[in-house]
Design brief:
This protein is mainly α. The protein has two domains: about 30 residues, no CATH class; about 70 residues, no CATH class. The protein is about 65% helix and about 0% strand. Helix 1 crosses helix 2.
Length: about 110
């Protein structure tokens, strides 16, 4: 899959693949999958990827200056982590079901 992404993005002389590899890897990791209904990034980190242009609060110092309640943020993150475990378990069951269906067809 990464090869397909690189093939679509590199120049015709194909010498700039090394400079495009991080972008292709990011695209692969954040691409939504049909079998799990999540991207690999979401399954690992438990939240939607934040693209560099979307950064709003870059440091803890800025969060404090803005007046962000850090206890609330920490509580929300713990809830997200707990929900992530449930999502992973659900996806594991769904992936197993999809694999069993594929085996029956073969």
């Amino acid at each position: 899959m990464i090869e397909a992404i690189l093939t679509k993005t590199i120049a015709s002389h194909r010498r700039d693949w090394a400079s495009r590899f991080p972008e292709a890897l990011w695209a692969y990791q954040t691409m939504w999958r049909n079998t799990t209904s999540y991207s690999p990034y979401q399954l690992v980190f438990g939240k939607e990827p934040v693209f560099p242009i979307e950064f709003e609060i870059q440091t803890l110092r800025i969060a404090q200056e803005v007046g962000l309640n850090l206890n609330e943020v920490q509580t929300n993150r713990l809830q997200q982590i707990n929900e992530l475990d449930e999502i992973r378990f659900s996806d594991l069951q769904h992936t197993t079901l999809v694999q069993q269906r594929r085996e029956k067809r073969a």
